[in-house]
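In practice, a research group might receive sequence data for several interacting partners and want a quick structural hypothesis before committing to experiments. The following worked case mirrors that situation: the sequences arrive first, and a predicted assembly follows.
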Amino acid sequence: MNVTQLIIPELTLLAAAALLFLMGGSNAPKTRLLAPVVALLAMVGALVASLIGQRTGVRMDDTGSLAVTALSVYIKSISIGVGALFVLLAWPTSRDGASNRSISFSTETSEYFALLLLAITGMCVVASANSLPTLFLGIELASIPTYIMVTMSRPHQQAQEAGVKYFFLGALSAAMMLLGMSYLFGVTGEMRLDHIIDVLRRPADGPGIGGSLLMLAVLLMMMSFLFKLAAVPLHFYAGDVYQGAATPVTAAISFIPKIAGMTALIKLLYVAGAGTWALDPKLMKLVWIIAVLTMTVGNVLGLLQYNVKRVLAYSSIAHSGYLLVGLATLVHVKAPEQRGDALAAIAFYMLAYGVMNVAVFGVLMLLPAKVPAPARTAETYDDLAGAGWRHPVLGVVMALGCFSLIGIPATAGFFGKLYLLKPAIQSGNTALVWLAVLTMINAAISAGYYLKIVTAMWSKSDGAGTEAIRDTAHDSAYDLGHQAPATERSVPVLAAIALSAAGILAAGIVFPLTGAIYRAAASATAWLADGPR
Amino acid sequence: MAEMALLLLILFPFAGAIFAASMKVAQVARVWTLLISFLTFALALVVAGGVMDKSVVTWGTTPGVANPLAISDIGLAARLSCDGISIWLVLLTTFIVPLVVVSVGPAINDRADARWFYTWVLVLLGSLLGAFIAADGLLFYFFFELTLVPSLFMIAIWGGADRRAAAGRFFIYTFAGSIFLLIGLIYLAAQANSFEMSRLIWVAQNDITSTERWWIGLAFLVGFLIKTPVFPLHSWQPLTYAESPSPAAALIAALMSKLGTYGLLRLAIPIGFVGPTNNGAISQTVIVLCLIGIVYGGLIAWVQKDAVRLIAYSSLSHLALCVLAMFAALANNASTTLSLQGAVMYMIAHGLSTAALLLVIGAIYARAGTRNLTEISGLFAKMPVLSTLLVIFTMASIGLPITSGFVGEILSLQGVLNGLGFGVAAIAALGMILGAIYMLHMVASIGFGPLKAPAGAVLTDATDREMAALLPLVAAVLALGIMPTPVLESFKDEVAAIAHWSPTVLEDNRPQQTEEPYWQ
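A structural hypothesis for the assembly, expressed as tokens:
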């Protein structure tokens, strides 16, 4: 099949990104204000193209470097869909198009959206990558723009520091991945993932082909993907990077690299298990251990933070842990149906996580900081104190997002956790039942800091009436002298928040809808569970 | 009609809550909340009529008819059913909530944010009702957990000085307990192909190994014992009660604690503790814990200075007797029904008297500014009506004849005596004596003796608003105490079925391959 037919969504995004880079040459405010519109239209176009292009079975180009499957279409759709929300979060709302409440583009508005589109293109490439070079290119295309986005998002040292730190560690992880890939190629003599599976399945070579070298290759690549997920012990950058970046960028980098990394990880283990998930038991144990460590370390460190963005950084680590719980279940269970359940649960959780994150970060970027430096928008618990009374809608959405992240009923997060736990407990495997217990204990630990956020937002100083608080808050919000004048409307951000809140609630209450989303996730991943196609 | 009312019972409060949140004027929100909660009570009466008619009202459980509110992939469906036990808890809930709304005083009502309080009251009402009428284990869990959200806000926003710590501890402690409940549910449902309660129970009694049943029984038990709470899992309770605003304390103490006892009766006991492989060791441990709780709660209550903490510890002691009666029922088949009837009756009586006591103490606190027993005394002289009410509810709480407390307590004790023998019953009866001591101690120090109150306290007697809230409770307490037989008869068959273990009788509930498989 002609390669262009397969990558219409990616081409749409790329073309728009190129256009945006060209638009970046203009310094007119009008051009800057036009940039998000272009980005959003490109997203919608790419989403439509990706959904229309959906076919059953696998479609491959002539060289076999890309394979569009149901899973690719699902991952592309959710990354473009959630990506559109990121465009809304970063929408410039100042009159000159150079900033919104939280992010300062200076003159680089168009470039920012171009980079965002490139990162999402990278996710799409990862989703349909079928050869080692394409996979590498996809991962890097999803990562490199995020380094720049972090750096350019705020004119502060913290942002520069975060960007540099993120870049160096990201480069290291890319080196690991390439090293792993070279070993994988060396052992199997193949670049294409489906050919590697064939080699690993060839009876003459036996299942033990490659032995420790294959293991080394898988481990190195896994390490790199786990870095993208910020899994423990490769999580050290997350706190600083999330704190340093402007809030809309934090939202984006807590989703894009994670989904890319998780997709790549699933592909890698599928390949390493020779398409039947017949993995080395040591590898299975490793995934289990990393899942437990990631959840637990993320949640415990989250309890210790004062900066809410750092809290959410550790919360995102913990959520990587929950995704890895799904992965651990996937590699441990024996029955294909349960594997299907685990895969569908991971796919469902990715979407739920993306939407919950947009809600939480969206609220955070709309609230003013008490002290104008270094961040204009809320970062600490103090900034949040009492904010719910001044902005009830934001307060309710934040509570909804936090409850969803804990996994309280009537939210998408509850069903996300339920779907993750179901195959683990159903399998009857002792290790997995314990994994489920540990997951739920972690949910209880995480309640500690999520509740702190919620109660801080709805707190009141003793004796002070609502009105008094309201007055001082208005003063502090507008004394900052930042570029958010009283007239500035953040309609796009509010739209993103409203959409994500509606999604969280609808998926938690309207049971038929929840079932429909899950079935979409299940049908996208079903082919992976059955073994060789 | 009654079937539809059952569904509306859940939907109504939630819909009402959305509107209440948008009402800017506190008074409007209050009247609206009253209206909704009264209408919910009316709906509960309709359902009660249906239950009297055909003993159980269900919605969405008809075999062969697809449930419109279901997630088939996970086996969750909005199956509702209300039988002789559920209906009393539904009635209790819908009866107490409007009265609590009436009782909300200026401390909350005059604040600009009062509408949010009413919103959370309605959310709590809806979640409690949902838990009490769920016929689906996961749906039960769904609402069981959801009750935490409104209570969290009520405590954290309108509570006392230490409210945020109290709210956090309450939430995390009870959430952590229900973790095991969820895992037990999913594990059992994996074998049952459904979360339907009757199937879960059938499978637990027939299809799983005794080791599995041991773990599952324990998992269910822990969740419910924390919610009740039973010693030594109670450490969230005194702080929570003390820091909650008094309407919220009344709701949590009277109604949310019943989620624990109801869950024990409905799920934990039939799933883990009925029949030959009945996990005797765990049962015996629970019995010992209950006995410790009865005495320990009583002794600690005795030395409390804070009246609300005193009531918290008295609840610990009282509900331990309720749980003890449930486990006593398993020990002796002859007295099973009697004992469980006593336990259910005790749940209703405890709900009424605890809510009433907390509301009276709340009213006194609003006037005197303190609930410390050493700082106030002799209030009878200044507020005879309120003090009389305090005495009446205290009598109900310690189980004086002609009050509702008497019936539940005496039947529970009878069950304990028959099931577990004289020694255990003697210790349990010690709890009654202790109860009389500390409750009368409280009444004596608040109501009688020389008049003492902090300076500046305006000791007016009960207002019309308070009378409107408390008099129906007096009526209910006396009515149940004078005419308990119709009540006890109405759930006799249901409690008998709970403790009844016989695979052949329950054969109808064997999980069958339905047209629409619940598990893929």
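Before designing any experiment, note the following. The first strand of chain A starts at residue 59 and ends at 60. Residues 157-188 of chain A form the longest helix (32 residues).
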